[in-house]
Amino acid sequence: MEKWIALIPAMPFIGFLINGLGVKKISKPVAGAVGVACSLAAFLLALLVLFQFKSEDGKPVSTELWNWISNPRFNIGFSFQLDQLTLVMLMVVTGVGFLIHIFSLGYMHEDEGFGKFFAFLNLFLFSMLILVLGGNLLMTFIGWEGVGLCSFLLIGFWNKNKAYNEAAKKAFVMNRIGDLGFLIGIFLLLYRFGSVEYSVLVENLSLVAAVNDPYLVWAGFCLFVGAMGKSAQLPLFTWLPDAMAGPTPVSALIHAATMVTSGIYLVIRMNALYSAIPFVQEIILWVGLATALLGALIGTSQNDIKKVLAYSTVSQLGFMFVALGVGAYTAALFHVITHAFFKALLFLGAGSVIHGLHEEQDIRNMGGLKKYLPITYGTFFVANLAIAGIPPFSGFFSKDEILAHTYAANKAAYIFLAIIAGITAFYMFRLFFLVFYGEYRGKLSSGKIHESPGSMFIPLIILAVLSTIGGLIGIPPVFHAPHLLADFLSPVLEPGSRLVTNFNLGHSLSHTDEWMVMGISVIISLLGIAVAWLMYISKKTVPSFEAPSGILHRLTEGKFFLDEIYDWVVVKPVNLIAGLFSVLVDLLMVNLIVEGIGMMSRGLSMGLRTSQGGRVSGYLFIMFFSILIFAVYFLVSGI
C-alpha cells in the first residue's frame, strides 16, 4: 500500500507539467483529457488505498521519501502519513475535485486559456493532496502555501481585468497574515518537543499533565491564526467573497473541497493539542460564531449569485469552527464532507445558470428559469434543502450534530447558532426563488437561454445524489444506528478524547434533548424558508436596483463596510508609513549616501582626468615639478 501513497499527489502534478509545459502546443481536447485523467487517477488511487488500508493498533502508516532537514537537535523527513483522517480528506478532495474537472470541460471550452486553466487546477489538487498527506507540520505547510499560490493564480486567471487581479492579490496577502501565525506555531512546537512529526507530537501531547499550559496555548493560538486566514474566519475572511473573480469551477474548488477546509483539517489533526487548551477552544468557538452570524447576515442582501454562495461558505465555515470550539471534531469533519457535496453542487449549479444566461450573475435579472434549466433547477433545489438542514438531506445530519454538541457545551452559543441556521434557510431560498420562480426579468431573449451540456449537468446529478444520501455516514445516536464516520475516525481522535476525559472537560446530551434540538432546528429552517416564500413568491418582491434603504439593509448590502474599515485602519496607515520611509530612508539616507559617494567619485575623476591630456611636454613638466617637491622636502627634513 505504501507504494501507492506517493503516487496520489504525483498524478495531478504530472497533469500540471504536461499542460503547463505544453500550454501553447497542446490542443483543448488533449489538455482537458490530461487534466481530467490525472484527477481521475488520483481519485482511483485514493480509493485503492482506502480499501487496502490496515492500521495496526490504530497507528498511522508513514512513508518517508527522504530525510529532508537534519541537524543534531531534530530531523524532519519529507514524509507522508496515512490514517483515517487523511483517507476521508483524500476521498473528498479527489472525488469532488474530479467532478469539478469534468464540469470545467464544458464551462471553459471557449476560453482561450483552457490549457493553462487545467494546468492550474491540477496544481491546486496536487497542493491540497500534499497538505492532507503530509506526515509533519512542515509538509502540511508546503501544501498550505501551494494552495495559497494556486488561489492567487486561479482567482486572477482572467488577468486582463484589473479588479480580478486586485482580488487575487487580496487573497494572497490576507493568507500570508495567517501563514505567519502558522509558522510561529510550528516553531513553538518544534522548540518545545524537538519535532514537528505528527506521530511524535501526538505521543508527547498525550502526556500533557496540565490544562492551558501557556506554551501550548500560544502554539495552539498561532496555529489557529493560520486556520483563520486559510478558512476565512473573522477578521481574515474578506478575501473569500472576492475570490468569486475567478471562473466558477475555481469558486467550487476553493469553497467546497480544498482550500477553505484546510484550517478545519489542521485543528482536527492537532486535536490532542486543542483538547489540552480549552482557553483557545473558547476563542475558536466565539470567532466561529461571529463569523457564521456575519456571513449569514451579509448573505441576505447580496444580489450576485456567486456572492450569496460565497458568504454562505463563510457562514458554514463558522459552523465548523463552532464545532471545533466545543471539541466536536467528528461533527466538524462531518460538515466538511456534506458541505463539500452541497456547496460544490450550489457553485456548479450557479455556473450552469451563468453559462445558460451567457455570463449574467445578477439575480435581479433572472427569474422563471425553472422551465429553461430543468436539470439545474432540480439539483439546485436538492442542494438548497441540504444546506437548509431539511431531513433527510445530508446537511440536516451534520448541522444537527453541531447544534447538539453546541447545546451540550454552551447554551448561549447554541441559541445564536440556531438563529443563524434559520437565516441560512431564508437567504438560500431567497436566492432559489429569485432565480427559478416568477417571470424572467433579464434582457436576454428567452430563446437564447439553454441548459448546460452533459459534461456540466452529469457532475450536478452525482453531487445531488451525494447531497441526498451523504448524511447516512453520521446517523444521530438517538436512532440507535452506528455513526460510521465517528467509528472510523476514533483512532485519530482518541488522544484528544483521552485528555478531555482526564481533565473532565467532556459534555453529554440525553436523547430527549437531542430530539428537542433536532425538532427546533428543523422548525427554524422551515420558518426561514416560509419567510422567503412569503416575500419572494407570495408578495413577488424583487430586490431594488436603487441604493438600499434602512440601516440594517445598508449594513448587510455594504458587507458591514469591513473592506472600507480595513482600508482606513490598515491599508492607508501602511501606505502612509511606507511613503514616509520612502522619503526618509530611501531618498534622504540611501540615495544621499549612495549618490553622494558616486558624485564625489565622479568629481575626483573629472579633476584627475584633466591631467591625462596625452601631451608629453605636460607629463615632463609634472614629473619635473614632482621631483622638485620631493627634493625640497628631503632637504628641509634633513634626510
Characterise this structure.
The structure is a single chain. The protein has 639 residues and is mainly α. It folds into three domains: 1-276, no CATH class; 329-544, no CATH class; 564-637. It is 72% helix and 3% strand. It contains 25 helices and two strands. It has helices at residues 2-5, 7-21, 28-52, 84-107, 114-133, 137-155, 162-193, 198-205, 214-230, 239-242, 248-257, 262-269, 271-275, 278-299, 305-325, 329-356, 374-388, 394-409, 411-436, 454-469, 484-502, 511-538, 551-557, 562-609, 616-637; strands spanning 61-70, 75-82. It has a two-stranded antiparallel ribbon. A hairpin with a 4-residue loop joins strand 1 and strand 2. Helix 16 packs across helix 21. The model has no long low-confidence stretch (mean pLDDT 87).
Write the layout of secondary structure elements.
Blueprint (H helix, E strand, L loop, with lengths): L1 H4 L1 H15 L6 H25 L8 E10 L4 E8 L1 H24 L6 H20 L3 H19 L6 H32 L4 H8 L8 H17 L8 H4 L5 H10 L4 H8 L1 H5 L2 H22 L5 H21 L3 H28 L17 H15 L5 H16 L1 H26 L17 H16 L14 H19 L8 H28 L12 H7 L4 H48 L6 H22 L2
Antiparallel strand pairs: 1-2
Helix pairs in contact: 2-3, 2-5, 3-4, 3-5, 4-5, 4-11, 4-16, 4-20, 5-6, 6-7, 7-9, 9-12, 11-16, 12-16, 14-15, 14-19, 15-16, 15-18, 15-19, 16-17, 16-18, 16-20, 16-21, 17-19, 17-20, 18-19, 18-22, 19-22
Terminal residue distance: 92 Å
Identify the overall geometry.
globular
As a percent range, the share of strand residues is: under 5%
Number of self-contained structural domains: 3
Chain-averaged pLDDT: 87
Q: Return residue spans where pLDDT drops below 50 for at least 5 consecutive residues.
A: none
Strand arrangement across the biggest beta sheet: 1-2
User: What is the radius of gyration computed over CA atoms, rounded to a whole number of angstroms?
Assistant: 30 Å
Order of helices and strands: HHHEEHHHHHHHHHHHHHHHHHHHHHH
Can you summarize the main beta sheet? 2 strands, antiparallel
User: So how many helices?
Assistant: 25
Helical fraction: over 70%
Structural class: mainly alpha
Instruction: Tell how many strands the DSSP assignment holds.
Output: 2
